[in-house]
Amino acid sequence: MASKSTAKSNESLDDDKLISYENLDRASPDLWPEKIPGVAEFEVEQRAKGKASSTPKWLADLEKDDINLLQEFGSLTLSQLMEKVRGLQNLAYQLGLEEAREMTRGKFLDVLAKPKQPR
């Protein structure tokens, strides 16, 4: 038993040796130069432009129905959302089967055949 407590105290002493009290000042441009010159100014300009527009670009392209759908999905619990995803996967599978049937039907009816050239 005494050897276990001695081993734990030795581990804590080793951990104390690893602690560094050095403080790195990241504000200094000499220590942390820009990787690409001009990026900081570009970022400031982009943030200013982003604040000027009230809605984000991705949100501006959405219609009201799309926004309502996003809000509906956002209000679901995890299990409800997973059930919704399963339902969408099943619907996609059913649509795939129906498309395969219709393509087979079109093949048998020669719907996509090229018109024959008159001689």
Q: What would you say about this model in short?
A:
Belongs to the lin-52 family. This protein has 119 residues and is mainly alpha-helical. The chain is 66% helix and 0% strand.
How does this model look, in words?
- There is one protein chain.
- This protein is an all-alpha fold and 119 residues long.
- Helix content is 66%, strand content 0%.
- The chain contains five helices and no strands.
- It starts with a helix and ends in a 10-residue tail after the last helix.
H/E element order: HHHHH
Proportion in β-strands: under 5%
Radius of gyration in whole Å, from Cα?
A: 32 Å
Q: Main beta sheet: strand number and arrangement? A: none
Please give the share of residues in helix. Answer: 55-70%
InterPro entries: DREAM_LIN52
Protein name: Protein lin-52 homolog
Pfam families: LIN52 (PF10044)
Family: Belongs to the lin-52 family.
